[in-house]
Specification:
509 residues; alpha/beta; FAD/NAD(P)-binding domain; five-stranded parallel β-sheet; 20 helices; 40% helix; globular; binds flavin-adenine dinucleotide
């Protein structure tokens, strides 16, 4: 054993970096071990030829601007990183194009603009949009109140102030929209963001979905100027300012438990052992319980077996040798689906070559100088809802990924009229195998565990203590209680840091 740390964090992804700052701010010692030579996990960038590609982030919501800052801004402020990052404001929410329904709709940003834009979708489209915004705000405020009351809200307050939340919180997006008699076209448009959560609208919890979506509609979204790597570097700088340590190229292999099943250290791939009584794992619980513990509590096995892995990632990064204008790429953020029915697309995404849905971003529309003059960066992201890549033979792998990438590119061209083929200067294709190798996440999931009706954000937030089945070990990040996403992973990391600090305090009593 070497130097002792109050807390060791395994993984310098968003959750691990936020957790480290939380621990250090309380004056405790903290070591982060990261198996790669870079911080951020998915939150990074890479270079091919003349292009620096964003590896993951499409957009970050909840920042807001001016007097109207949101919860992500507050989080970054608390962590002391908000001013270390150069933020760029995204101008539209999205452009939704669906083949079956012939929809081509651009959602602006700001409540009035969103309501106005929906007027032309159907009779009373504006009223339905306003109703969605009102419901969402009520749900978000209720969730804040429940958080502030530490899980013990006053029933009287809930009934008087948060009646909409109480009516919606146990139901799926589809169930609430049906109960509220939302016309199909309104459902389609509001559901466009479904692939950001990667859960069917028949299953995803309404309050969770609304809490994410309304922030895009109301406050818009931002992107860091120098890709998400800039955010990761800002976190690393802050950790160093607070006296923390990060060891790169350092893989944790075991979390050491004493004979009472309590954490007493972490062993590393280089044979070194680190002395600590508290670990926050930013890696997948499948790996923690499946590989890193010698004795796995039954509850952990049951929990991880019960949970469903969320979408496995597939991304095509394109460096194009013409400007967006010359190529006919008019927007920053596109959702292109074969049909607007999320439940149908979700099922199609269980097949290898349906290419049924994509979320595509043209970085130049938020940051015109992100690539050399007269060029474009475009990245197309999709999900596989099953482990279909496991069936691809090794010898067919490269051919298959090129074929599937071509399908997605062709669908983008057909939907938008833009011309991509013939202008591809650089291309990189990340499959679920790429993501599995890079982060170690099972089957290449990029979204942690999927939200299910009985394992939604609401259920998990109420079960955080039951989730901590090994004394001294907590899980923070995209596999945590807030589920996937940049801000969720940061928030989860910070929450686990705070819980760990309370554990340390209790031990001292
Ligand atoms: C293509 C793509 C697009 C996305 N778009 C968006 C978006 O627009 N908006 C959004 O909110 N989210 C998006 N996401 C999801 C988001 O990136 C993730 O939810 C989030 O980054 C996960 O953070 P995390 O804390 O779970 O850490 P991860 O990024 O999962 O990182 C875990 C870290 O742990 C390290 N590690 C693992 N095992 C060990 C070990 N044994 N020892 C040491 N280190 C270890 C890994 O190397 C890695 O650095 C996207 C993801 C992808 C891939």
């Amino acid at each position: 054993m070497n130097k002792k740390y109050d807390v060791v964090i395994i993984g310098a992804g968003n959750g691990g970096l936020a957790a480290a700052i939380g621990v250090l701010k309380a004056g405790k010692s903290c070591l982060v071990v990261e198996k790669h030579n870079l911080p951020g996990g998915f939150a990074t960038s890479f270079v091919r030829g003349r292009f620096e590609f964003e590896a993951s982030l499409h957009e970050l919501n909840g920042m807001g601007q001016g007097a109207h800052t949101g919860s992500t801004y507050a989080l970054f402020d608390e962590l002391g990183v908000v001013d270390k990052i150069d933020w760029l404001q995204i101008k539209h929410a999205f452009r939704l194009i669906t083949k079956e329904e012939g929809l081509d709709f651009t959602m602006p940003i700001g409540p009035e603009a969103c309501v106005e834009a929906c007027k032309k979708l159907c009779p009373d489209g504006d009223k339905y949009m306003q109703r969605f915004i009102d419901l969402s705000i009520n749900c978000a405020e209720a969730m804040n109140y429940i958080g502030q009351s530490k899980g013990k809200p006053d029933p009287q307050v809930m009934q008087t102030k948060y009646a909409d939340y109480l009516a919606c919180a146990s139901y799926s997006v589809d169930e609430v929209f049906e109960a509220e008699h939302f016309p199909k076209v309104m459902q389609y448009v509001i559901n466009a963001y479904w692939s950001y959560l990667g859960t069917k609208t028949s299953e995803v919890n309404f309050a969770h979905y609304a809490n994410m979506t309304y922030k895009y509609f109301l406050y818009g979204a931002v992107a860091p100027k120098l890709r998400s790597h800039e955010m990761s570097l800002a976190f690393v700088e802050r950790i160093h300012e607070l006296g923390g340590e990060i060891w790169f190229n350092t893989e944790a292999t075991k979390i050491l438990l004493d004979d009472k099943g309590r954490v007493f250290g972490v062993s590393l791939a280089n044979g070194q052992c680190i002395d600590t009584r508290h670990v926050i794992a930013n890696c997948s619980p499948h790996n923690v319980y499946g590989k890193m513990l010698n004795k796995v509590p039954e509850a952990a096995t049951k929990l991880t077996n019960f949970r469903r892995l969320a979408g496995r990632g597939f991304t095509i990064f394109l460096g194009l040798n013409k400007s967006p204008e010359a190529l006919g790429i008019t927007d920053h953020s596109y959702f292109i689906y074969d049909t607007a029915d999320a439940n149908v697309i979700y099922e199609k995404m269980k097949k290898l070559d349906s290419a049924a849905g994509q979320a595509t971003v043209c970085l130049n529309h938020v940051h015109p100088d992100c690539s050399p003059k007269g060029t474009t960066i475009l990245y197309i992201t999709s999900l596989f809802m099953d482990d279909v890549w496991a069936d691809v033979d090794e010898k067919d792998y490269h051919k298959k990924k090129n074929e599937i990438a071509a399908l997605f590119i062709r669908k983008f061209e057909e939907a938008t009229g833009a011309k991509l083929f013939g202008h591809i200067e650089e291309i990189a294709i990340a499959t679920p195998q790429t993501y599995a190798r890079y982060t170690g996440h099972p089957q290449g999931t990029i979204y942690g565990y999927e939200s299910q009706p009985n394992d939604s954000l609401m259920a998990r937030v109420q079960m955080v203590n039951e989730d901590a089945v090994v004394s001294g070990l907590r899980i923070g990040g995209g596999f945590g209680e807030r589920l996937l996403g940049f801000s969720s992973a940061y928030k989860s990391g910070l929450s686990e840091a705070k819980r760990t600090l309370r554990d340390i305090e209790k031990e001292a009593c």
